[in-house]
Amino acid sequence: MTHSADLADRLTEVVGTRGVLRRAGELVVYRSDGLPGYSKQPRLAVFPRTRDELVAVVRLLADQSVPFVPRGAGTGLSGGALADDVVLVGLNRLTRILSIDPVERLAVVEPGVVNVALTRAATPYGLHYAPDPSSQAACTIGGNVAENAGGPHCLKYGVTLNHVRAITAILPDGEIVRLGNAEGEVEGYDLLGTFIGSEGCFGIALDVTVKLSPNPQAIRTLLADFTSVDAAARATSEIIASGIVPAALEMMDGATIRAVEASIYAAGYPVDAEAILLIELDGLEAGLEADVARIEAMCSAAGARTVRVARDDAERARLWQGRKKAFGAMGRVSSHLVVQDAVIPRTRLPDVLAVIREIAERQRITVCNVFHAGDGNLHPNIGYDANDPDEQARVHAAMREIMATCVAAGGTITGEHGIGLDKLDYMSLIFSEDSLAAMCRLREVFDPARRANPGKVVPVHSCREWHGAPRAAWTA
Amino acid sequence: MVPASAAPSPAVAQNASPATTPSSSPLRPASTADVREIVGDAIAQKKPLRIVGRGTWLDAGRPVEAARQVSLDGLTGIVDYTPGDLTLTARAGTTLAEIARATADHGQWLALAPWGGDAGSLGATAATATAGPMSGALGTPRDIVIGIEAVAGSGELVRGGGRVVKNVAGFDLTRLMVGAWGTLGILTEVSVRLRGLPEQEASLALRLPNAPAAVAELVTRLRSAPIAPLGIEMLSARLAARLGIGQQPVVIARLAGNADAVTAQRAALGAFGDLLDVPDDVWTDLRTAEPAEATVVRFSSTVARFHEVWVAVDRLATAGDGYAHASVLRSSARVVLPHNAGALPDGALELLRGASRDTRIFERLPAALWPGLAPSRATDRLSAGVRTAFDPHRLLNPGILGETHA
Questions:
Q1: Is residue B34 located within the same domain as residue B178?
Q2: CA-CA distance, B88 to B85, in Å (whole number)?
Q3: Phi, psi of B252, deg, nearest 5
Q4: Residue A159 sits in which domain range?
Q5: Which residues contact A361 (CB under 8 A, 6 or more apart)?
Q6: Minimum Cα–Cα distance from B382: chain A residue
Q7: Averaged pLDDT for residues B114-133
Q8: What's this model's pTM, rounded to 2 decimal places?
Q9: Residues B217 and B309 both lie in one domain
């Protein structure tokens, strides 16, 4: 049993006064993450500055049997970093890049290193860190590991999982373990692969060894515009089926295009288009033009009005900024925005997008689509006013219908944002009780006391041996 | 089929577990329901099972003591293949050859291409995480498998991942089962991502120098050359000869892409020396070169030490009357030593014992050699916990990972 004031005092001994937030007013900012519609207040927030402080914090929490939620930059879109009356462990002060080895093409970073900062540090060596979530200017490598984050260029280069070689992690009970091996292979279970994407339920990464990728010799960025979403979807399916693997293949619909073009992120997209595809090809200079020509032909055959190739780096950067800042640009359209996330088989893009449109009309909501079309990774984004209960109810109903549609098409309920809090209810759409129970037992291998990110990822009722929520350890 | 080993050397015989000696013919489930029944019976009778896939490589992994064998050669067939999605789902016992035939019709392929050839099954390739010469460029089973269905040792039917190429729903049971050697569950279905077959290909060989410094320089230059090969493999002289590429050590590269890309890459490789065109079949021949009975050890290394590892592996291959090859893209080398009634030449044994423990993985060994060469790893808490979470009674391939000898 722990009194939170006592705990705060003891945490302060570890991290200093400026490293602990305990007053309600100070904690307000940590009530939400990138997902609107939830508000959960942490009991305390603690911000270690060094690895040693982090280890001491986790061990203190273990010693006191206190549940906690690890948090990176708080850009997550599934509510995974929300701490409901438990301790929030902020990792955003652990920002050191410990090493960059251009020969091995590896970097070792602390969990709070911002995604784009790593690429910036690798640039002098002609290298970059491949996974590039839209939030890469703010999100952290630790958060990327927790969510197994993706991004536009994951179509060709793979998600976080494919770029992490090793992790030193502290388990919730304070034990430090080494997962994977930066210098080669390891025998036995892929505990590293299991840890990645575990949404902060298995422990906290103290350091992460990631692969750095050589910058491609040549890049071509194409913008194809269409008068219908359906035509753009068909072009996408054609391109994927052709076997050419673009570095990225993104779609934005008319509503998104117009929001972007009306914002400071205006990228020069055609505002009268109903859909655009942003297609990037990269690799060797030789042969790239031939692939560009094939892609142009496929887009034209599917009904593209124009296909233009970015002339230089500046134009390419502008085209990409419009895509990556699209969520921000939608702030102009409505007060709240749910960025949804689901994946479908790529041949199903045209018909699933049509069904989503039909659901939106029936529920009288606005859905904007900006997503990783090449992966079949949809982001149907719903703008709404969270203060309007009727609209909120319709948004939730539509969301559930959209998820059910994607699952029925052979898809899944999240491609890169995670389950967190938001998608707990959908887990039973895709996993049997047996599978969910197995996941519960897997979590208990890493965290037998279930103190790390309690209540997330797997619905509590699926854990057959669950004996009450761990927050019972608290007293006020 | 039982691994032919026999005649263990007296020094290790006492510690050696006998190889699987099934009391009767293997169980041959034809459906996931059959597999559930088999595991259910094993639980009820507390009798362990040896899962053998299609039985093509039974000397892989440590010897297993089990009452019954479960062969998955009857659990076959492609369950779902929509070419436009570039994904495929097949039952675990489906051969890679069958998948290759089905996908080639649509200009696609499953880029696993593991050691051992295409007679093996998709399930065994996933369960053992067996990679091959393309894995440096195209990924290992960990990257290519997107979903699994398995009957856990607890009797539960579990699914991980799915049939889409991007998926972070729930804890990653797929990653856990891939490479678990069947010790967590019997894989019944596996989903994979596919690739389009390259428009053009060219396989080329160039001479590999002997001096370590020259090897290091060549590898460094190859890694930064303007090429995007599907594989670059160094071959010892004996292996090169076996594959019909002369009597000297060589590097072979598999170039792919459209016509312009292949032409340009060929020119770029030409800067490294005289090129010899070799048939594209060389990659299949490389994968199937291993004798039915062989000791196979894999050494993984850093880029910086790779040339040293190569020299050591080449020496080991020579001492053991075998051959060596190494992936430039993965900095990983394999040595293949044929053996005679379970014995290796003393010189080779000596070198194997001396190799750093961190970097070597024994793929195949005669049963008698396991305890002496690869004593069990201390079982870490997490791995033991994972095993208990899925196979609480230790019924599936007990001992194959060295976990029960600790």
A1: yes
A2: 8
A3: -110, 140
A4: 97-214
A5: none
A6: A445
A7: 96
A8: 0.94
A9: no
Interface test with A, best of B156, B164, B405 (most A CBs within 10 A): B164
Report the residue of chain B nearest A214, measured CA to CA: B224
- Phi then psi dihedrals of residue A398, to 5 deg: -65, -40
CB pairs < 8 Å spanning A and B:
235
Query: Is B380 found in the same domain as B359?
Result: no
Burial, B332: exposed, middle or buried (Cβ in 10 Å; 0-12, 13-18, 19+)? Answer: buried
Mark yes or no for CB contact B169/A419 under 8 Å: yes
How would you class A423 by CB atoms within 10 Å of its CB: exposed for 0-12, middle for 13-18, buried for 19 or more? buried
Number of domains in chain B: 3
pLDDT at B377: 64
Give the domain extent around B336: 290-373
Return the CATH number at B214. 3.30.70.3450
What's the rounded Cα separation, in Å, for the pair B233 and A264? 50
> Using one digit for the tens of pLDDT, what is the confidence trace for A445-459?
999 999 999 999 998
- CA distance to A45, A146, A191, per residue, from A141 (Å): 20, 9, 18
Q: Which residues of A touch B180 (CB under 8 A)?
A: 189-190
DSSP B289: -
**Tokens coding A419:** 């389950």
Q: Are residues A235 and A181 in the same domain?
A: no
Q: Do B99 and B78 form a contact (C-beta atoms < 8 A)?
A: yes
Domain count, chain A: 5
**Residue A163 reports pLDDT greater than 80:** yes
Q: What is the DSSP letter of A473?
A: G
Q: Please tell me the predicted confidence (pLDDT) of residue A469.
A: 45
Q: Phi first, then psi: give them for residue A28, nearest 5 degrees.
A: -55, -45
Contact A415 B168 (CB under 8 A): yes
Are the beta carbons of A286 and B359 separated by less than 8 Å?
Answer: no
Residue closest to B190 by CA, chosen among B84, B25, B53, B379: B53
Are B217 and B337 part of one and the same domain?
no
Establish how many alpha carbons lie within 13 A of residue B195's alpha carbon, considering only the half-sphere containing its beta carbon. 21
Q: Is the pLDDT of residue A244 over 70?
A: yes
Residues B265 and B294 in one domain: no
Identify the three-state secondary structure at position B112: coil
Q: B167 and B186: one domain?
A: yes
pLDDT bucket at B357, cuts 50 / 70 / 90: low
Write out pLDDT tens, residues B245-292.
Answer: 999 999 999 999 999 999 999 999 999 999 999 999 999 999 999 988
Average pLDDT of chain B? 90
Residues A132 and A240 in one domain: no
B30 and B140 fall within a common domain? yes
CA atoms within 13 A on the CB side of A420: 31
B7 and B63 both lie in a single domain: yes
**Is A300 found in the same domain as A228?**
yes
Residues A35 and A119 in one domain: no
Supply φ then ψ for residue B17, to 5 degrees. -80, 140
CATH of the domain at B313: 3.30.70
Q: Are residues A185 and A137 in the same domain?
A: yes
